[in-house]
Amino acid sequence: MTMNNPKRILVVDDEPSVTRNLKLNLEARGEYCVRTESDPTHVLTVARTFRPDLILLDVIMPELEGGEVAARLADDPLLRDVPIVFLTAIVSNAETGGHEMIRGEQTFVAKPVDLGELERTIEDHLRARTVPAPLPMSLGGGPGQQDHYCARTSA
Amino acid sequence: MSSVFHRQESLSRSWIKAGTSGLVFLVGLIDYYTGFNVSVTLFYLVPVSLGAWFAGRRTGIGLAAASALVWLVADILSRQVAQHPFVPVWNSVTLGMGFVLVAYLFGALRDENLGLERMVEQRTRSLQAEIASQIRSQQQLAETNQELNLARQRLQRSLADLGTAHVDLQRTQSQLIEAAKMESVGRLAAGVAHEVKNPLMTLSLGADYFLGRPAGNPEEALLVRDMKEAVQRASSIINLLLDYSRPRPLEQAPEDLNHLIDNSLALVRHQLQKAKVKVVRELEAELPPVSVDRTRIEHVFVNLFQNACQAMPQGGTLTLRTSHAARPEKDGGGTPRVRVEIEDTGRGIAAQDLPHVFDPFFTTREPGQGTGLGLAIVRRIMETHGGSISLANRAEGGVRATLELNTMTQP
Protein backbone atom coordinates (compact mmCIF):
# COMPACT_ATOMS: atom_id res chain seq x y z
CA MET A 1 0.00 0.00 0.00
CA THR A 2 1.16 3.47 -0.67
CA MET A 3 0.05 6.95 0.25
CA ASN A 4 -1.55 7.13 -3.17
CA ASN A 5 -4.03 4.47 -2.20
CA PRO A 6 -4.41 4.65 1.58
CA LYS A 7 -7.06 2.55 3.28
CA ARG A 8 -9.86 4.64 4.67
CA ILE A 9 -10.62 4.07 8.36
CA LEU A 10 -13.48 5.74 10.23
CA VAL A 11 -12.83 5.92 13.98
CA VAL A 12 -15.92 6.41 16.17
CA ASP A 13 -15.50 7.05 19.91
CA ASP A 14 -17.21 9.56 22.17
CA GLU A 15 -13.84 10.50 23.67
CA PRO A 16 -12.05 12.91 21.31
CA SER A 17 -8.71 12.15 22.97
CA VAL A 18 -9.06 8.50 21.93
CA THR A 19 -10.04 9.26 18.35
CA ARG A 20 -7.30 11.88 18.03
CA ASN A 21 -4.63 9.49 19.27
CA LEU A 22 -5.83 6.62 17.11
CA LYS A 23 -5.76 8.89 14.06
CA LEU A 24 -2.26 10.13 14.87
CA ASN A 25 -0.90 6.64 15.40
CA LEU A 26 -2.59 4.97 12.44
CA GLU A 27 -1.73 7.75 10.01
CA ALA A 28 1.85 7.83 11.26
CA ARG A 29 2.31 4.47 9.49
CA GLY A 30 1.44 6.18 6.23
CA GLU A 31 -0.92 3.42 5.18
CA TYR A 32 -4.25 4.72 6.40
CA CYS A 33 -6.42 7.70 5.88
CA VAL A 34 -8.33 8.18 9.14
CA ARG A 35 -11.44 10.21 9.77
CA THR A 36 -12.69 10.61 13.33
CA GLU A 37 -16.19 11.06 14.69
CA SER A 38 -17.11 11.62 18.35
CA ASP A 39 -20.86 11.96 17.91
CA PRO A 40 -22.40 8.54 17.27
CA THR A 41 -25.57 10.08 15.78
CA HIS A 42 -23.48 11.55 12.92
CA VAL A 43 -21.78 8.28 11.98
CA LEU A 44 -24.18 7.36 9.19
CA THR A 45 -23.90 10.74 7.44
CA VAL A 46 -20.16 10.87 7.82
CA ALA A 47 -19.73 7.29 6.63
CA ARG A 48 -21.84 7.90 3.52
CA THR A 49 -19.58 10.82 2.62
CA PHE A 50 -16.28 9.31 3.70
CA ARG A 51 -16.92 5.77 2.37
CA PRO A 52 -14.57 3.96 4.81
CA ASP A 53 -12.94 0.61 4.08
CA LEU A 54 -13.27 -0.24 7.77
CA ILE A 55 -14.89 1.28 10.85
CA LEU A 56 -13.42 1.18 14.38
CA LEU A 57 -16.47 1.58 16.60
CA ASP A 58 -16.63 2.15 20.34
CA VAL A 59 -19.33 0.09 22.10
CA ILE A 60 -20.40 2.22 25.07
CA MET A 61 -21.26 5.76 24.03
CA PRO A 62 -23.86 8.21 25.31
CA GLU A 63 -26.94 8.84 23.12
CA LEU A 64 -26.29 5.91 20.81
CA GLU A 65 -24.55 2.60 21.62
CA GLY A 66 -22.05 1.05 19.23
CA GLY A 67 -24.35 -1.92 18.64
CA GLU A 68 -27.17 0.39 17.50
CA VAL A 69 -24.79 2.30 15.23
CA ALA A 70 -23.68 -1.03 13.70
CA ALA A 71 -27.32 -2.02 13.13
CA ARG A 72 -28.00 1.25 11.28
CA LEU A 73 -24.90 0.75 9.17
CA ALA A 74 -26.04 -2.77 8.33
CA ASP A 75 -29.39 -1.38 7.15
CA ASP A 76 -27.69 1.03 4.74
CA PRO A 77 -27.15 -0.44 1.23
CA LEU A 78 -24.01 1.67 0.81
CA LEU A 79 -22.39 0.68 4.08
CA ARG A 80 -23.62 -2.79 4.95
CA ASP A 81 -20.44 -4.48 3.66
CA VAL A 82 -18.04 -2.24 5.54
CA PRO A 83 -16.30 -4.37 8.20
CA ILE A 84 -16.64 -3.11 11.76
CA VAL A 85 -14.15 -3.71 14.55
CA PHE A 86 -15.59 -2.89 17.97
CA LEU A 87 -13.44 -1.23 20.61
CA THR A 88 -14.59 -1.98 24.13
CA ALA A 89 -13.48 -1.17 27.62
CA ILE A 90 -15.63 -3.75 29.36
CA VAL A 91 -14.00 -6.91 28.13
CA SER A 92 -10.67 -7.94 29.60
CA ASN A 93 -7.65 -9.06 27.64
CA ALA A 94 -8.18 -12.55 29.05
CA GLU A 95 -11.65 -12.61 27.53
CA THR A 96 -10.35 -11.55 24.16
CA GLY A 97 -7.41 -13.93 24.64
CA GLY A 98 -4.92 -11.07 24.41
CA HIS A 99 -6.02 -10.36 20.86
CA GLU A 100 -9.26 -9.71 19.05
CA MET A 101 -12.34 -11.60 20.12
CA ILE A 102 -14.93 -12.79 17.67
CA ARG A 103 -18.49 -13.10 19.02
CA GLY A 104 -20.92 -14.23 16.38
CA GLU A 105 -20.17 -11.99 13.40
CA GLN A 106 -18.57 -9.28 15.49
CA THR A 107 -14.94 -8.61 16.23
CA PHE A 108 -14.00 -6.99 19.54
CA VAL A 109 -10.71 -5.45 20.57
CA ALA A 110 -10.20 -4.70 24.27
CA LYS A 111 -9.22 -1.19 25.35
CA PRO A 112 -6.56 -0.03 25.84
CA VAL A 113 -5.59 -1.43 22.45
CA ASP A 114 -2.19 -2.74 21.55
CA LEU A 115 -1.34 -0.80 18.41
CA GLY A 116 0.39 -3.69 16.65
CA GLU A 117 -2.52 -6.00 17.41
CA LEU A 118 -5.03 -3.42 16.19
CA GLU A 119 -3.15 -3.04 12.90
CA ARG A 120 -3.07 -6.81 12.43
CA THR A 121 -6.83 -6.99 13.03
CA ILE A 122 -7.46 -4.13 10.58
CA GLU A 123 -5.29 -5.78 7.93
CA ASP A 124 -7.03 -9.15 8.39
CA HIS A 125 -10.41 -7.54 7.84
CA LEU A 126 -9.32 -5.46 4.89
CA ARG A 127 -7.82 -8.52 3.19
CA ALA A 128 -10.93 -10.58 3.79
CA ARG A 129 -13.23 -7.91 2.42
CA THR A 130 -14.47 -8.48 -1.07
CA VAL A 131 -13.91 -5.48 -3.25
CA PRO A 132 -17.31 -3.78 -3.58
CA ALA A 133 -18.66 -2.71 -6.94
CA PRO A 134 -18.07 0.99 -7.75
CA LEU A 135 -20.92 3.12 -6.54
CA PRO A 136 -22.81 5.57 -8.69
CA MET A 137 -21.83 9.20 -8.13
CA SER A 138 -25.41 10.16 -7.38
CA LEU A 139 -25.37 8.29 -4.06
CA GLY A 140 -22.92 10.79 -2.71
CA GLY A 141 -19.45 10.41 -1.29
CA GLY A 142 -17.79 10.25 -4.70
CA PRO A 143 -14.10 9.48 -5.07
CA GLY A 144 -13.33 13.15 -5.55
CA GLN A 145 -14.56 14.04 -2.10
CA GLN A 146 -12.79 11.08 -0.53
CA ASP A 147 -9.52 12.01 -2.06
CA HIS A 148 -9.98 15.57 -1.03
CA TYR A 149 -10.48 14.53 2.62
CA CYS A 150 -7.57 12.16 2.69
CA ALA A 151 -5.32 14.56 0.87
CA ARG A 152 -6.24 17.21 3.39
CA THR A 153 -5.82 15.11 6.46
CA SER A 154 -2.77 13.16 5.49
CA ALA A 155 -0.93 16.16 4.22
CA MET B 1 -69.48 -58.83 105.18
CA SER B 2 -69.96 -56.93 108.43
CA SER B 3 -73.17 -58.90 109.32
CA VAL B 4 -71.31 -62.18 108.88
CA PHE B 5 -68.58 -60.80 111.09
CA HIS B 6 -71.20 -59.82 113.75
CA ARG B 7 -72.85 -63.24 113.59
CA GLN B 8 -69.52 -64.91 114.11
CA GLU B 9 -68.80 -62.57 116.99
CA SER B 10 -72.15 -63.21 118.74
CA LEU B 11 -71.66 -66.96 118.18
CA SER B 12 -68.30 -66.93 119.94
CA ARG B 13 -69.79 -64.77 122.70
CA SER B 14 -72.54 -67.37 123.34
CA TRP B 15 -69.87 -70.05 123.59
CA ILE B 16 -67.96 -67.94 126.06
CA LYS B 17 -71.11 -67.34 128.11
CA ALA B 18 -71.92 -71.03 128.13
CA GLY B 19 -68.33 -72.01 128.91
CA THR B 20 -67.91 -69.52 131.78
CA SER B 21 -71.38 -70.41 133.19
CA GLY B 22 -70.32 -74.06 133.16
CA LEU B 23 -67.09 -73.09 134.85
CA VAL B 24 -69.09 -71.26 137.61
CA PHE B 25 -71.18 -74.39 138.13
CA LEU B 26 -68.00 -76.54 138.23
CA VAL B 27 -66.41 -74.24 140.86
CA GLY B 28 -69.70 -74.45 142.81
CA LEU B 29 -69.50 -78.28 142.76
CA ILE B 30 -65.92 -78.21 143.94
CA ASP B 31 -66.95 -75.73 146.68
CA TYR B 32 -69.73 -78.11 147.86
CA TYR B 33 -67.52 -81.23 147.90
CA THR B 34 -64.59 -79.57 149.67
CA GLY B 35 -66.92 -78.56 152.54
CA PHE B 36 -67.64 -75.15 154.02
CA ASN B 37 -64.37 -74.94 155.97
CA VAL B 38 -62.20 -75.24 152.85
CA SER B 39 -62.34 -72.01 150.84
CA VAL B 40 -62.14 -72.15 147.00
CA THR B 41 -64.07 -68.87 146.77
CA LEU B 42 -61.37 -67.07 144.80
CA PHE B 43 -61.72 -69.66 142.00
CA TYR B 44 -65.09 -68.06 141.14
CA LEU B 45 -63.06 -65.07 139.94
CA VAL B 46 -61.68 -67.15 137.03
CA PRO B 47 -65.01 -67.51 135.08
CA VAL B 48 -66.10 -63.99 136.16
CA SER B 49 -62.92 -62.33 134.88
CA LEU B 50 -62.80 -64.50 131.73
CA GLY B 51 -66.47 -63.74 130.96
CA ALA B 52 -66.03 -59.99 131.60
CA TRP B 53 -62.88 -59.91 129.42
CA PHE B 54 -64.15 -61.91 126.52
CA ALA B 55 -67.91 -61.26 126.52
CA GLY B 56 -68.25 -57.78 128.02
CA ARG B 57 -69.08 -56.05 131.28
CA ARG B 58 -72.70 -57.16 131.44
CA THR B 59 -71.85 -60.83 131.02
CA GLY B 60 -69.15 -60.39 133.72
CA ILE B 61 -71.65 -58.83 136.14
CA GLY B 62 -74.16 -61.61 135.40
CA LEU B 63 -71.50 -64.24 136.03
CA ALA B 64 -70.55 -62.42 139.29
CA ALA B 65 -74.13 -62.56 140.48
CA ALA B 66 -74.43 -66.21 139.41
CA SER B 67 -71.16 -67.03 141.22
CA ALA B 68 -72.43 -65.38 144.43
CA LEU B 69 -75.67 -67.42 144.21
CA VAL B 70 -73.84 -70.71 143.44
CA TRP B 71 -71.44 -70.04 146.32
CA LEU B 72 -74.45 -69.44 148.67
CA VAL B 73 -76.17 -72.67 147.57
CA ALA B 74 -72.93 -74.71 147.82
CA ASP B 75 -72.22 -73.24 151.29
CA ILE B 76 -75.73 -73.94 152.64
CA LEU B 77 -75.64 -77.50 151.29
CA SER B 78 -72.17 -78.25 152.59
CA ARG B 79 -73.15 -76.85 156.04
CA GLN B 80 -76.22 -79.13 156.17
CA VAL B 81 -74.00 -82.08 155.37
CA ALA B 82 -71.70 -81.06 158.17
CA GLN B 83 -74.76 -80.32 160.36
CA HIS B 84 -73.63 -76.77 160.80
CA PRO B 85 -76.79 -74.85 160.07
CA PHE B 86 -76.05 -71.31 159.05
CA VAL B 87 -77.32 -69.28 156.13
CA PRO B 88 -74.53 -66.81 155.19
CA VAL B 89 -76.70 -64.48 153.13
CA TRP B 90 -74.63 -61.39 153.91
CA ASN B 91 -71.40 -63.19 153.12
CA SER B 92 -72.91 -64.05 149.80
CA VAL B 93 -73.93 -60.44 149.18
CA THR B 94 -70.41 -59.17 150.07
CA LEU B 95 -68.81 -61.79 147.84
CA GLY B 96 -71.25 -60.94 145.04
CA MET B 97 -70.31 -57.26 145.29
CA GLY B 98 -66.63 -58.21 145.21
CA PHE B 99 -67.26 -60.36 142.11
CA VAL B 100 -69.25 -57.58 140.47
CA LEU B 101 -66.40 -55.15 141.14
CA VAL B 102 -63.90 -57.52 139.56
CA ALA B 103 -66.29 -58.08 136.61
CA TYR B 104 -66.77 -54.35 136.29
CA LEU B 105 -63.00 -53.65 136.32
CA PHE B 106 -62.29 -56.37 133.74
CA GLY B 107 -65.18 -55.13 131.63
CA ALA B 108 -63.83 -51.57 131.79
CA LEU B 109 -60.35 -52.82 130.93
CA ARG B 110 -61.81 -54.73 128.01
CA ASP B 111 -63.74 -51.65 126.77
CA GLU B 112 -60.62 -49.56 127.06
CA ASN B 113 -58.73 -52.20 125.15
CA LEU B 114 -61.40 -52.43 122.48
CA GLY B 115 -61.40 -48.64 122.09
CA LEU B 116 -57.65 -48.71 121.72
CA GLU B 117 -57.88 -51.53 119.19
CA ARG B 118 -60.51 -49.65 117.24
CA MET B 119 -58.38 -46.55 117.28
CA VAL B 120 -55.37 -48.51 116.05
CA GLU B 121 -57.53 -50.08 113.40
CA GLN B 122 -58.81 -46.68 112.28
CA ARG B 123 -55.31 -45.27 112.30
CA THR B 124 -54.13 -48.26 110.29
CA ARG B 125 -56.93 -47.81 107.80
CA SER B 126 -56.23 -44.12 107.38
CA LEU B 127 -52.52 -44.88 107.09
CA GLN B 128 -53.25 -47.50 104.45
CA ALA B 129 -55.44 -45.01 102.59
CA GLU B 130 -52.67 -42.47 102.84
CA ILE B 131 -50.13 -44.98 101.51
CA ALA B 132 -52.49 -45.90 98.68
CA SER B 133 -52.96 -42.24 97.75
CA GLN B 134 -49.20 -41.75 97.92
CA ILE B 135 -48.72 -44.73 95.62
CA ARG B 136 -51.29 -43.20 93.26
CA SER B 137 -49.50 -39.84 93.31
CA GLN B 138 -46.22 -41.63 92.66
CA GLN B 139 -47.76 -43.37 89.69
CA GLN B 140 -49.13 -40.06 88.44
CA LEU B 141 -45.71 -38.56 88.97
CA ALA B 142 -44.12 -41.37 86.99
CA GLU B 143 -46.66 -40.86 84.20
CA THR B 144 -46.04 -37.11 84.17
CA ASN B 145 -42.33 -37.79 84.18
CA GLN B 146 -42.69 -40.08 81.20
CA GLU B 147 -44.73 -37.46 79.36
CA LEU B 148 -42.11 -34.86 80.21
CA ASN B 149 -39.42 -37.19 78.88
CA LEU B 150 -41.32 -37.60 75.64
CA ALA B 151 -41.82 -33.86 75.40
CA ARG B 152 -38.12 -33.38 76.05
CA GLN B 153 -37.23 -35.83 73.29
CA ARG B 154 -39.60 -34.03 70.93
CA LEU B 155 -37.99 -30.73 71.91
CA GLN B 156 -34.53 -32.16 71.36
CA ARG B 157 -35.59 -33.36 67.90
CA SER B 158 -37.07 -29.93 67.13
CA LEU B 159 -33.88 -28.34 68.38
CA ALA B 160 -31.80 -30.57 66.11
CA ASP B 161 -34.12 -29.72 63.19
CA LEU B 162 -33.80 -26.05 64.04
CA GLY B 163 -30.03 -26.42 64.15
CA THR B 164 -30.00 -27.98 60.69
CA ALA B 165 -32.36 -25.31 59.39
CA HIS B 166 -30.13 -22.67 60.91
CA VAL B 167 -27.04 -24.10 59.20
CA ASP B 168 -28.95 -24.28 55.89
CA LEU B 169 -30.07 -20.69 56.34
CA GLN B 170 -26.55 -19.57 57.13
CA ARG B 171 -25.27 -21.33 54.01
CA THR B 172 -28.02 -19.77 51.87
CA GLN B 173 -27.34 -16.41 53.44
CA SER B 174 -23.63 -16.60 52.72
CA GLN B 175 -24.39 -17.70 49.17
CA LEU B 176 -26.76 -14.76 48.80
CA ILE B 177 -24.18 -12.40 50.24
CA GLU B 178 -21.56 -13.87 47.90
CA ALA B 179 -23.93 -13.46 44.94
CA ALA B 180 -24.79 -9.89 45.94
CA LYS B 181 -21.10 -9.15 46.41
CA MET B 182 -20.36 -10.60 42.98
CA GLU B 183 -23.12 -8.54 41.41
CA SER B 184 -21.87 -5.32 42.95
CA VAL B 185 -18.26 -6.19 42.11
CA GLY B 186 -19.42 -6.89 38.55
CA ARG B 187 -21.21 -3.55 38.28
CA LEU B 188 -18.29 -1.75 39.86
CA ALA B 189 -15.83 -3.52 37.57
CA ALA B 190 -17.76 -2.66 34.42
CA GLY B 191 -18.14 0.95 35.52
CA VAL B 192 -14.50 1.29 36.53
CA ALA B 193 -13.38 -0.47 33.35
CA HIS B 194 -15.28 1.92 31.16
CA GLU B 195 -14.22 5.05 33.00
CA VAL B 196 -10.58 4.10 33.46
CA LYS B 197 -9.78 2.25 30.27
CA ASN B 198 -10.69 5.14 27.97
CA PRO B 199 -8.18 7.51 29.56
CA LEU B 200 -5.69 4.63 29.70
CA MET B 201 -6.20 4.16 25.98
CA THR B 202 -5.40 7.82 25.37
CA LEU B 203 -2.23 7.50 27.43
CA SER B 204 -1.28 4.23 25.76
CA LEU B 205 -1.80 5.60 22.25
CA GLY B 206 0.12 8.76 23.18
CA ALA B 207 3.04 6.65 24.36
CA ASP B 208 2.75 4.53 21.18
CA TYR B 209 2.97 7.66 19.07
CA PHE B 210 6.16 8.82 20.73
CA LEU B 211 7.64 5.32 20.65
CA GLY B 212 7.11 5.31 16.88
CA ARG B 213 9.20 8.48 16.46
CA PRO B 214 12.96 8.84 16.82
CA ALA B 215 13.66 9.84 20.43
CA GLY B 216 15.55 13.04 21.26
CA ASN B 217 17.80 11.16 23.71
CA PRO B 218 17.84 7.64 25.30
CA GLU B 219 16.23 8.88 28.55
CA GLU B 220 13.23 10.14 26.61
CA ALA B 221 12.66 6.75 25.03
CA LEU B 222 12.97 5.08 28.44
CA LEU B 223 10.49 7.53 29.92
CA VAL B 224 7.92 6.78 27.24
CA ARG B 225 8.43 3.03 27.63
CA ASP B 226 7.86 3.38 31.41
CA MET B 227 4.65 5.26 30.68
CA LYS B 228 3.51 2.47 28.40
CA GLU B 229 4.31 -0.14 31.06
CA ALA B 230 2.45 1.81 33.73
CA VAL B 231 -0.61 1.90 31.51
CA GLN B 232 -0.37 -1.84 30.93
CA ARG B 233 -0.13 -2.50 34.67
CA ALA B 234 -3.18 -0.38 35.42
CA SER B 235 -5.05 -2.07 32.60
CA SER B 236 -4.18 -5.54 33.85
CA ILE B 237 -5.60 -4.73 37.30
CA ILE B 238 -8.89 -3.73 35.68
CA ASN B 239 -8.81 -6.91 33.63
CA LEU B 240 -8.41 -8.93 36.84
CA LEU B 241 -11.48 -7.20 38.25
CA LEU B 242 -13.46 -7.97 35.11
CA ASP B 243 -12.33 -11.61 35.03
CA TYR B 244 -13.24 -12.04 38.68
CA SER B 245 -16.69 -10.53 38.36
CA ARG B 246 -17.59 -12.16 35.06
CA PRO B 247 -15.87 -15.51 34.61
CA ARG B 248 -15.70 -16.93 31.09
CA PRO B 249 -17.29 -20.33 30.45
CA LEU B 250 -14.89 -23.23 30.87
CA GLU B 251 -13.31 -24.87 27.84
CA GLN B 252 -12.70 -28.30 29.31
CA ALA B 253 -10.58 -31.03 27.77
CA PRO B 254 -8.80 -34.12 29.16
CA GLU B 255 -5.45 -33.04 30.56
CA ASP B 256 -2.53 -34.56 32.41
CA LEU B 257 -2.14 -32.59 35.63
CA ASN B 258 1.60 -33.28 35.90
CA HIS B 259 2.02 -31.83 32.44
CA LEU B 260 0.09 -28.68 33.37
CA ILE B 261 2.24 -28.29 36.50
CA ASP B 262 5.43 -28.49 34.42
CA ASN B 263 4.05 -25.99 31.89
CA SER B 264 3.13 -23.54 34.68
CA LEU B 265 6.55 -24.06 36.25
CA ALA B 266 8.19 -23.08 32.97
CA LEU B 267 6.23 -19.80 32.99
CA VAL B 268 7.66 -18.76 36.38
CA ARG B 269 11.12 -20.38 36.02
CA HIS B 270 12.86 -17.04 35.62
CA GLN B 271 11.18 -15.64 38.72
CA LEU B 272 12.06 -18.76 40.76
CA GLN B 273 15.69 -18.66 39.68
CA LYS B 274 15.94 -14.96 40.52
CA ALA B 275 14.56 -15.60 44.03
CA LYS B 276 16.93 -18.61 44.49
CA VAL B 277 13.98 -20.96 45.04
CA LYS B 278 14.79 -24.65 44.68
CA VAL B 279 12.01 -26.74 43.15
CA VAL B 280 11.35 -30.32 44.32
CA ARG B 281 8.95 -32.32 42.11
CA GLU B 282 7.30 -35.38 43.68
CA LEU B 283 4.83 -36.14 40.92
CA GLU B 284 2.89 -39.42 40.89
CA ALA B 285 3.74 -41.14 37.61
CA GLU B 286 0.40 -42.81 36.81
CA LEU B 287 -2.11 -40.00 37.34
CA PRO B 288 -5.58 -40.36 35.75
CA PRO B 289 -6.56 -37.54 33.34
CA VAL B 290 -8.67 -34.62 34.55
CA SER B 291 -11.23 -32.64 32.54
CA VAL B 292 -10.15 -29.02 32.94
CA ASP B 293 -9.80 -25.68 31.19
CA ARG B 294 -6.07 -25.79 30.68
CA THR B 295 -5.53 -22.00 30.66
CA ARG B 296 -7.47 -21.58 33.89
CA ILE B 297 -5.72 -24.37 35.77
CA GLU B 298 -2.35 -23.07 34.61
CA HIS B 299 -3.43 -19.66 35.88
CA VAL B 300 -4.11 -21.31 39.28
CA PHE B 301 -0.68 -22.95 39.41
CA VAL B 302 1.20 -19.87 38.22
CA ASN B 303 -0.60 -17.74 40.81
CA LEU B 304 0.24 -20.18 43.64
CA PHE B 305 3.88 -20.55 42.47
CA GLN B 306 4.24 -16.76 42.40
CA ASN B 307 2.74 -16.45 45.88
CA ALA B 308 5.15 -19.10 47.17
CA CYS B 309 8.04 -17.30 45.49
CA GLN B 310 7.06 -13.98 47.06
CA ALA B 311 6.80 -15.67 50.47
CA MET B 312 10.47 -16.72 50.19
CA PRO B 313 12.39 -13.53 49.33
CA GLN B 314 15.60 -15.01 50.79
CA GLY B 315 15.17 -18.21 48.78
CA GLY B 316 13.80 -21.57 49.91
CA THR B 317 12.25 -24.77 48.62
CA LEU B 318 9.08 -25.14 46.57
CA THR B 319 7.77 -28.71 46.78
CA LEU B 320 5.17 -29.91 44.26
CA ARG B 321 3.44 -33.19 44.96
CA THR B 322 0.65 -35.00 43.11
CA SER B 323 -1.22 -38.05 44.40
CA HIS B 324 -4.48 -40.02 44.23
CA ALA B 325 -7.34 -38.95 46.53
CA ALA B 326 -11.05 -39.71 46.95
CA ARG B 327 -14.00 -37.38 47.16
CA PRO B 328 -15.45 -37.35 50.70
CA GLU B 329 -18.44 -39.70 51.21
CA LYS B 330 -20.86 -36.91 52.20
CA ASP B 331 -20.14 -35.13 48.94
CA GLY B 332 -21.36 -37.70 46.48
CA GLY B 333 -18.83 -40.22 47.62
CA GLY B 334 -16.05 -42.24 46.21
CA THR B 335 -15.29 -40.38 42.95
CA PRO B 336 -11.56 -40.75 42.43
CA ARG B 337 -9.75 -37.43 42.66
CA VAL B 338 -6.24 -36.20 42.22
CA ARG B 339 -4.52 -34.08 44.82
CA VAL B 340 -1.87 -31.45 44.27
CA GLU B 341 0.14 -30.12 47.19
CA ILE B 342 2.25 -27.00 46.83
CA GLU B 343 4.53 -26.31 49.79
CA ASP B 344 6.85 -23.43 50.45
CA THR B 345 9.35 -22.75 53.24
CA GLY B 346 8.37 -19.11 53.61
CA ARG B 347 7.05 -17.08 56.51
CA GLY B 348 3.56 -18.63 56.56
CA ILE B 349 0.21 -16.87 56.95
CA ALA B 350 -0.80 -15.10 60.19
CA ALA B 351 -3.54 -17.06 62.00
CA GLN B 352 -5.97 -14.14 61.88
CA ASP B 353 -5.48 -13.79 58.11
CA LEU B 354 -6.02 -17.48 57.26
CA PRO B 355 -9.86 -17.38 57.16
CA HIS B 356 -9.76 -14.37 54.79
CA VAL B 357 -7.10 -15.29 52.23
CA PHE B 358 -9.73 -16.28 49.65
CA ASP B 359 -11.89 -13.17 50.21
CA PRO B 360 -11.90 -10.80 47.25
CA PHE B 361 -9.83 -7.64 47.83
CA PHE B 362 -8.14 -9.13 50.91
CA THR B 363 -4.40 -8.54 50.73
CA THR B 364 -1.51 -8.47 53.18
CA ARG B 365 0.74 -6.67 50.74
CA GLU B 366 1.57 -2.98 50.74
CA PRO B 367 -1.04 -0.76 49.02
CA GLY B 368 -0.44 -0.82 45.28
CA GLN B 369 1.39 -4.17 45.45
CA GLY B 370 -1.62 -6.41 44.94
CA THR B 371 -5.32 -6.30 44.13
CA GLY B 372 -6.34 -8.99 46.62
CA LEU B 373 -8.06 -10.81 43.79
CA GLY B 374 -5.40 -13.45 42.99
CA LEU B 375 -6.52 -16.15 45.45
CA ALA B 376 -10.20 -15.23 45.06
CA ILE B 377 -9.90 -15.96 41.34
CA VAL B 378 -7.93 -19.15 42.07
CA ARG B 379 -10.68 -20.44 44.34
CA ARG B 380 -13.35 -19.48 41.82
CA ILE B 381 -11.55 -21.43 39.11
CA MET B 382 -11.21 -24.51 41.36
CA GLU B 383 -14.89 -24.33 42.32
CA THR B 384 -16.12 -23.97 38.74
CA HIS B 385 -14.15 -27.16 38.02
CA GLY B 386 -15.93 -28.94 40.92
CA GLY B 387 -12.61 -29.04 42.76
CA SER B 388 -11.38 -27.54 46.01
CA ILE B 389 -8.46 -25.60 47.43
CA SER B 390 -7.32 -24.98 50.99
CA LEU B 391 -4.33 -23.24 52.53
CA ALA B 392 -2.70 -24.18 55.83
CA ASN B 393 0.47 -23.35 57.70
CA ARG B 394 2.90 -26.26 57.88
CA ALA B 395 4.28 -27.36 61.25
CA GLU B 396 7.79 -27.08 59.79
CA GLY B 397 7.07 -23.48 58.66
CA GLY B 398 5.72 -22.15 55.40
CA VAL B 399 2.41 -22.77 53.69
CA ARG B 400 0.85 -25.83 52.11
CA ALA B 401 -1.81 -25.34 49.42
CA THR B 402 -3.89 -28.48 48.85
CA LEU B 403 -5.90 -28.71 45.62
CA GLU B 404 -8.22 -31.50 44.55
CA LEU B 405 -9.87 -32.18 41.20
CA ASN B 406 -12.23 -34.91 40.04
CA THR B 407 -10.75 -37.38 37.62
CA MET B 408 -12.54 -38.53 34.48
CA THR B 409 -12.60 -42.13 35.78
CA GLN B 410 -15.96 -43.43 36.99
CA PRO B 411 -16.02 -44.60 40.62
Low-confidence stretches of chain A: 136-147
- Residue-averaged pLDDT of chain B: 86
Estimate the mean pLDDT confidence of chain A: 78
What is the number of strand segments of chain B?
Answer: 7
Describe this structure in words.
The complex is a heterodimer of chains A (155) and B (411). Chain A is of the alpha/beta class and 155 residues long. Chain A has helices at residues 16-28, 43-50, 66-75, 93-96, 115-128, 143-154, and strands at residues 7-12, 32-37, 54-58, 84-88, 101-103, 106-110. Chain A has a six-stranded mixed β-sheet, with helices on both faces. In chain A, strand 1 (7-12), helix 1 (16-28) and strand 2 (32-37) form a beta-alpha-beta unit. Mean pLDDT of chain A is 78; it is low at 136-147. Chain B is of the alpha+beta class and 411 residues long. Chain B is built from nine helices and seven strands, in the order H-H-H-H-H-E-H-H-E-E-H-E-E-H-E-E. Chain B has helices at residues 2-34, 45-55, 57-81, 89-211, 218-245, 257-267, 269-274, 294-311, 374-384; strands at residues 253-255, 277-282, 290-292, 316-326, 336-343, 388-393, 399-406. Chain B has a five-stranded mixed β-sheet with strand order 2-4-5-7-6. Chain B has a two-stranded antiparallel sheet with strand order 1-3. In chain B, a hairpin with a 5-residue loop joins strand 6 and strand 7. In chain B, helix 1 packs antiparallel against helix 2, helix 3 (57-81) runs antiparallel to helix 4 (89-211) and helix 4 (89-211) runs antiparallel to helix 5. Chain B is rod-shaped and about 190 Å long. Chain B starts with a helix and ends in a 5-residue tail after the last strand. The interface between A and B is medium-sized, with 23 and 27 residues.
